[in-house]
Amino acid sequence: MAERAKTPTLEQYEAMVTIRAFETEAERQYKAAKIGGYCHLSSGQEATTVGTMAAMTPSDLLVTGYRCHGFALARGVPASEAMAELFGRRSGCAGGRGGSMHLLDPERGFYGGWGIVAGQLPVATGLALALTRRGREDAVLCELGDGAVNMGAWHESLNLAALWELPIVYLVVNNVYGMGTSVSRASAEPDLFKRAASYRMASERVDGDDIEAVFDATDRLLGAAREQRKPAVLEAMTYRYRGHSVADAGTAYRTKDEIAERRGRDPITRVRATLAERGAEEAELEGAEQRARDTVAAAVEFADADAEPALDRLAAGMYAPTSDLQFARMKPGSPYGEDELVYAAGLGA
Ligand SMILES: Cc1ncc(C[n+]2csc(CCOP(=O)(O)OP(=O)(O)O)c2C)c(N)n1
Ligand SMILES: [Mg+2]
């Protein structure tokens, strides 16, 4: 395999700045009513996002929760297609029918964007099983929040992944809070990575604002997943600057001092300083920043000009092509169906 450039690279810096600019613009567009539904921003978490994505190969698979804009961008989804999805437009990466929480791009190995807390874990675990059944030497990276580790699906998924030796890394993005409850108030074992021990699974914690540390840990764990089918948990310690969603000011459950203190050790500023120390010219860094702004401005222009999805696409992709058979089996009188419609009978119809 070709030697990879040392992290952080200028490209990774540009990716981080692009994510920050994208999120800032998404909030603005939401408040201008161009974006509907929910919208969760990841500003502050860019080192975790870009560092983990840099360790994935093109044929690895990615599954995330709903705070997914940054992951989609870092995985290679064009900003125009991600923004069009937020706008609910037809060129959006989910056809304009998923919105902010359900970004999707299977061709780039990105299987969503999931709105139900921990709902992505069984899906990701199943994908890892599919990889082994098909004899592929790839791995799944499944992102989840600190709030998802108290859900049943977490335990069920980790148990099976360990038992069946599945090639999967569960990335717990610990940004200190769920919607408004801190990890220390929600988790009896607040060192979340330690919970993997219940399943005899490898796990570690990393400074999620240190892109080199994030990349190294993810690279190592994904490597073990691919080559030795060793699943793992990686807990990345980071912080979200904005509220839980754009509807939350984010100040009712944490102090302004705390937010200011975290902003004071911003991961993007850290990467900029590292690159400068290693010899990057100011003009190169500013060039990356300008390209990021241009990319996001063009994405908004693209999304705004794009059409809404056609009405007849509303149910497209909901059922597999074999679903006619499935429904025929459920019809009254079929071997698997009811003789009469139970509901209607119950109602005396
Ligand atoms: C099953 C389920 N319960 C509740 C919710 C509402 N909800 C959305 S996000 C969230 C908190 C999740 O926090 P965390 O996992 O830490 O992720 P973060 O938002 O910090 O990225 C909750 C309770 C949901 N979407 N799904
Ligand atoms: Mg959280």
Can you put this structure into words, describing what you see?
The chain is α/β, with parallel strands linked by helices and 349 residues long. It folds into two domains: 10-318, Rossmann fold (3-Layer(aba) Sandwich), CATH 3.40.50; 319-349, no CATH class. It is 43% helix and 9% strand. It is built from 13 helices and six strands. The protein has helices spanning 10-31, 46-54, 69-75, 79-86, 120-133, 152-163, 183-186, 211-228, 256-263, 267-277, 282-305, 323-329, 342-346, and strands at 61-64, 110-113, 140-145, 168-174, 202-207, 232-237. Strands 2-1-3-4-6-5 form a six-stranded parallel sheet, sandwiched between helices. α8 (211-228) links the parallel β5 (202-207) and β6. The longest helix has 24 residues, at 282-305. The termini are far apart. The relative contact order is 0.15. Bound molecules: thiamine diphosphate and magnesium ion. Magnesium ion (MG) binds at residues 145-147, 175, 177-178. Thiamine diphosphate is lined by residues 67, 115-117, 145-148, 175, 177-179, 244.
Q: Which properties best describe this structure?
A:
Rossmann fold, 2 domains, six-stranded parallel β-sheet, 13 helices, 6 strands, binds thiamine diphosphate
Strand residue content: 5-15%
Helix share bin: 40-55%
User: Based on CA inertia axes, which overall geometry fits?
Assistant: globular
Order of helices and strands: HHEHHEHEHEHEHEHHHHH
CATH architecture of the largest domain: 3-Layer(aba) Sandwich
* Ligands, deduplicated: thiamine diphosphate, magnesium ion
Q: What structural class do helix, strand and pairing data support?
A: alpha/beta
- Strands of the widest sheet, in order across it, are 2-1-3-4-6-5
Major beta-sheet overview: 6 strands, parallel
Oligomeric state of the chains in view: single chain
